[in-house]
Automatic annotation (TrEMBL):
Family stated for the protein in its record: Belongs to the class-I pyridoxal-phosphate-dependent aminotransferase family.
Catalytic activity: L-kynurenine + 2-oxoglutarate = kynurenate + L-glutamate + H2O; an S-substituted L-cysteine + H2O = a thiol + pyruvate + NH4(+)
Organism: Sparus aurata
Pfam families: Aminotran_1_2 (PF00155)
Gene name, Swiss-Prot/TrEMBL: KYAT1
Residue span, Aminotransferase class I/classII large domain: 25-328
Cofactor(s), names only, from the UniProt record: pyridoxal 5'-phosphate
Keywords carried by this UniProt record: Aminotransferase, Lyase, Pyridoxal phosphate, Transferase
Protein name, UniProt field: Kynurenine aminotransferase 1
Gene Ontology cellular component annotations, sorted alphabetically: mitochondrion
Subunit structure: Homodimer.
Record PANTHER family: FI04487P, KYNURENINE--OXOGLUTARATE TRANSAMINASE 1
Length: 391
């Protein structure tokens, strides 16, 4: 076998999803909605698949034309830059493949990529498979007097980040809102990262798959919208997260054409394109959202409003059984053992937060576990029953 597969063979989602299935556990582990996508997009999908032969055949390699047009129209307004649908967008097989194309196309043997911890686990193996070296910088819980209660209390030190740059630094990877802790970076924090990227002529790969999931008035800001950042930022998005349809596997990367060009090279020689009908449905979804944007009819308002209630429901349940929720994680004495014990004995699956850390730092964060609340109320009730029995 090829040596690039060494050391990247373990995958937390493969492992824990199997465990949850084996033990028929209530699954608050893997982050996917157990409810249906909104009606309008389901209907768009049905219409696409019954709409004649072309929806069942290949489409444009770099993105189905209606989809790149609607993404360009929708996001130009948000990023404050005229996005060219043909040059500046690559539609991919989920955000996973957008990330893969970015690392493969932009990272050379020996390049360093700074990753902010905790991070979505695939960044590290993807950097490694591209021949790069992952360099970590942690978000640290603010050492305030009281308890750390919110993900906003996890901060990135400007000095610490600055100290990680070397002449080999190719890119910084951020994820806002962050998986697993839900932190939404403030404009000042993004500006600090942007200043360092510009100073060191580094790229920024910004994973924004949860861009609509903000609560309590927090506002998601795109780092690509800051001065001087459009031409060095690759913004990654996911229709799976956006429209609660993770199985459709439609994602995208948006960046300047001179960067996307190289990502297209990887894409055309690996998957070529993703499912035509799913792209067509997502295009219709964005057309609709463009029209209702900012109104209560918008799914991008309805989804967070619904999840906000679910978050509070789960948080008060965790509190009442003696766990300390840090929206959206909870603190226990030993995360990994707790998670395993819970699946095996109590039938409730969660995810240890240590899985989102590099081996060097995972120990420090072993006392946290992640509960996903993008679930039906009945699923959350079942989890609550289990937690009450345990406590
Ligand atoms: N980035 C983050 C932060 C994620 O949580 C996920 C998983 N949903 C992805 C990327 C991959 O997204 P997709 O399912 O669209 O491939
Ligand atoms: N992104 C999802 C999560 O954070 C799961 C990804 C996967 O299952 N591969 O839970």
């Amino acid at each position: 076998h090829a040596s690039r597969t060494d050391g990247v063979d373990k995958n937390v989602w493969v492992e824990f999803t199997q465990l949850a299935a084996d033990y028929k556990a209530v699954n608050l582990g893997q982050g996917f909605p157990d409810f249906s996508p909104p009606k309008f997009i389901q209907e768009a999908f049905c219409k696409a698949v019954s709409g004649g032969p072309i929806m069942h055949q290949y489409t444009r390699a770099f993105g189905h034309p209606p989809l790149v047009r609607s993404l360009a129209k929708f996001f130009s307004r948000i990023v404050g830059h005229e996005i060219d649908p043909l040059e500046d967008i690559l539609v991919t097989v989920g955000a996973y493949q957008a990330l893969f194309c970015a690392f493969q196309a932009l990272v050379n043997e020996g390049d360093e990529v700074i990753i902010v911890e905790p991070f979505f686990d695939c960044y590290q193996p993807m950097v490694k498979m591209a021949g790069g070296k992952a360099v970590y910088v942690p978000l640290r819980p603010k050492a305030a007097s009281g308890a750390v209660l919110s993900s906003g209390d996890w901060v990135l030190s400007a000095e610490e980040l600055a100290s990680k740059f070397t002449p080999r630094t190719k890119a910084v990877v951020i994820n806002t809102p962050n998986n697993p802790i839900g932190k939404v970076y403030k404009t000042e924090e993004l500006q600090m990262i942007a200043d360092l990227c510009i100073k060191h002529d580094a790229l920024c790969i910004s994973d924004e798959v949860y861009e609509w999931l903000t609560y309590d008035g927090a506002k998601h800001v795109k780092i690509a919208s800051l001065p001087g950042m459009w031409e060095r930022t690759i913004t990654v998005g996911s229709a799976g997260k956006t429209f609660s349809a993770t199985g459709w596997k439609v994602g995208w990367a948006i960046s300047s054409g001179h960067i996307v060009k190289h990502m297209k090279t990887i894409h055309q020689n690996t998957v070529y394109h993703c499912a035509t009908a799913a792209q067509e449905a997502v295009a219709q979804g964005f057309e609709r959202e463009y029209e209702v944007f900012g109104s209560p009819e918008s799914y991008f308002q309805q989804l967070p409003a619904m999840l906000h209630l679910k978050r509070n429901k789960l948080a008060s349940c965790l509190e009442s059984v003696g766990l300390q929720p840090i929206i959206t994680c909870a603190s226990v004495s030993d995360g990994k053992s707790f998670v395993l014990l819970f699946v095996l004995w109590f039938g409730l699956a969660t995810i240890p937060v240590s899985a989102f850390y590099s081996p060097e730092h995972s120990k420090e964060f072993d006392k946290y576990i992640r509960f996903c609340f993008v679930k039906e109320d009945s699923t959350l009730d079942a989890a609550e029953d289990i937690l009450r029995k345990w406590s």
